Records
---
Amino acid sequence: MAMELKMTGLTSFMNEDELKYMNPLVQTCNKMLLEKSAQGNDFLGWVNLPVDYDKEEFARIQEAAKKIQKTCDVLVVIGIGGSYLGARAAIEFCLGQMYNSVRPEGIPEVYFLGNNISSGALNDIIKIIGDRDFCINVISKSGRTTEPAIAFRIFKDMCEKKYGKEGAKDRIFATTDKARGALKELANAEGYETFVVPDDVGGRFSVLSAVGLLPIAAAGIDIAEMMRGAAEAREAFTDGTTLDNDCFRYAAIRNILYRKGKGTEILVNYDPALVMFGEWYKQLFAESEGKDLKGIFPVSAAFSTDLHSIGQFIQDGTRNLFETVVWVKEQRSDVTIGHMDGDLDGLNYLEGKTMQFVNSKAYAGTLLAHVDGGAPNVLIEVDKADAYHFGYLCYFFEKACGLSGYLLGVNPFNQPGVESYKKNMFALLGKPGFEEEKKILEARMNG
Ligand SMILES: O=P(O)(O)OC[C@H]1O[C@](O)(CO)[C@@H](O)[C@@H]1O
């Protein structure tokens, strides 16, 4: 079994009957997803993506990844939201946070840009690249998202100055809409190799499409294994008549806890390699569920680091939260604790034990303490952090998210709320067409 959901941290907060009552609702929501019979049904391509994907494009992704590895020292990945979080989460999940420093020979450094508007962050990457060779993977369905569009304008220019227009064309890979949009038009005009953001897959569900797969493959990760993991999860979580299916059970648990006033979910990890996985999860659930004045607020935490900061609140603060802990059983590599003469740090009782052993006791001890403090804990135990398990876990959360949205009575596949800040920003920047709004907003800012 690739992963297992454990009820240990939930038994004092709900009983099996409550879960049974949820079963018919979850089954109905599953039908809505499988039969594409409900809101957002134009965006359900992710449901079968692990088996129903463009095999010819998949082979092209693998080829492009090899070409990137051969021709550059640095790959710059430009995108925001669903157009970057999945790839970065996968790379860090499989290779760790320091992947750029510990990568093997022949693998480029990979930096993610265009996911903020910080000139400092952008200039740092330019400095890091220095005189070295680089390639660009620009990822944007629309091609008009402000953050990646600014970064791409700057890096396209840099690339053309360094390699000439012809040379740059071979170093820029565009992942975008198959037919429309500003980036597609530009890619056609300039002759970039393009990859497709499928029409029926929203950004936050797109990691297993070219959006995630090209940067992941370029980082040296086996994307075929990743798809295999996702395909096995799809198989395991396609249907079921009871909540024995972990994915259905998780969706039911979330809904039960939400109805009991637990409006915040903290996705907890015990390894910095999973921090970006937490960021990916946040977009997935926040854009899917947080609407119509409803939804569980998704946040993430890295333990034991955050036990020394927000741990106090989780143990003892407002009782409106629950935790979902992703515990990875096997570490990428382990360390054994040695002996110290005089035992000044008091750690000799751990001599000969591994750090992962200590971490596992921190996990168990925290679980019991937080449950005693009134914070329900969903436990998701994963065997390993590799490509297969990333694919598996990713599909588990995507499917649970679709089910959760329908259980909540919202359309999980739109994100109308994201437009509000953009409209204001465009108006304040003086974008043509926003003249009236500009006056109104400036008066509000000044008054
Ligand atoms: O790929 P695009 O069009 O640049 O959009 C990027 C992101 O912006 C959003 O549309 C809004 O946050 C996300 O859903 C998407 O992942």
---
Amino acid sequence: MVVSVNNLVKRYGELIALDHFSLEVREGEVFGLLGPNGSGKTTAINCILSLLKYDKGTIEVFGKPMNPDSYESKRNIGIVMQNVAVFRELTVEENINYFCGLYVSDRQKCRQLTEEAIAFVGLENYTKFLPKKLSGGLLRRLNIACGIAHKPKLIILDEPTVAVDPQSRNNILEGILKLNSQGATVIYTSHYMEEVEQICSRIAIMDKGKVIASGTTNELKGMINTGEKITAELLRADSGILAGLKRLPNVSAAEISGNQLIVKSVHGKNNLPAVLEYLNTHDIAYGRIFCELPTLNDVFLEITGKELRD
Ligand SMILES: Nc1ncnc2c1ncn2[C@@H]1O[C@H](COP(=O)(O)OP(=O)(O)OP(=O)(O)O)[C@@H](O)[C@H]1O
């Protein structure tokens, strides 16, 4: 296990930010910590890194208890925090070289790693730029390069794509997968369910300082009763068809909204053929028809009763 957190409790005065929070991250994973703003993701990361004291619980990183002076473990961790933390008076290249130099004492090796990190995040054309000359997305890429240049075994990224343009966002997500394919274990926090679904092999969903569900995307979606949602654009909306549709196997709800027929089914696959057959045998004309699987928002909604994104 690369990271093992057990029953962590962290209070800020009266507020319980982490409420018996547990987590296990295995070697080689891209592990996603998904939760709405304020659910405790950053607090959990700061505790794992021993940057914050906590009230109860245990944390092991690389199989050893994590303490503020666990320098050997810390050398093998790369951190990319939510807020960009670079030196304003150093250029792109100087910043990366500085942060890499904190871990790598051989200056030639450090220069080589700096060049590799610049190429990795695609900042070759900006090496002599000061941070203030960079757009928000490029600044984020610099922040990432500073965190990963020393080639750490464990990379922790806390909401690295907030307020980032789509091009830089894709560059960041692809970069994370590349780092993972090169051997790094990754912990990735976000409140964007699409991103987490796109890159994470396992996910823990957080709410109010607790892990409310964890597993692969498919495991999480399999935990809830909400199943496929079938939408058909009807040429003529007729609510008379709803009663028959509701009697089909697995169907939990059928409704018409404008010219759209929406059929919701409970957990279970391949409900589309039955709906198609029903529409065809009842001579109901439709244009587009499509089937969607539940999203991680549906998982969050069913477990907590509220939307993941507010
Ligand atoms: N230094 C602090 N003092 C008091 N309360 C804090 C402090 N830091 C965080 N909190 C509170 O603890 C809770 C968890 O915050 P945290 O930043 O860990 O959540 P998060 O999931 O990372 O949210 P975000 O995505 O907004 O960063 C929130 O209610 C927040 O207001």
